[in-house]
Amino acid sequence: MTTDLNTLLTALYVWIDDFLAGRVRAGRRPRLTDPELLTLATAQVLLGVRSEARWLRLVPEALPGAFPYLPGQSGYNKRLRGALPLLKRVIRDLAADTDLWTDPVWLVDSTPVECARSRPAALRSALAGIAGYGWCRSHSRWFWGLRLHLVCTPPGCRSPGRWPTPRSTNARC
Fold first, then answer.
1. What residue ranges do the domains of the chain occupy?
2. What pTM value is reported for the model?
């Protein structure tokens, strides 16, 4: 996996470096350039490391030789916060440069709709054959009921009037 990650990060570094080619910084040239900083931040996200201090300790073994200079944790944090507008611009232009930008991607989210709390109430419910038990991570508890789904596309959310109506609409909690 390291070889594939190195290839991905090298391609990303080249793209970012070409994208920022005309950008000139005032003052002394930093030891860690902006393309290196953005590539380092991307690698941190791809490998799922949340702690900056831990990430800077892991870089030499996870990506040997990829970054000749690594700042300390406070310097990395300060540079990353200062580069936030640049990072947002790079992410947007990189997304626009991919095929997924025009792809009709659908995002789906759901929330639990609790229909009953006790076992006798669940058995008496008209949803006894439809609803079921599920785990709600946001509330850290089990629930008996249904999930309400929200489907969004890049142009916006789908309105309920554009969806086909279910065959049986008489089920109630």
1. 2-99, 107-162
2. 0.57
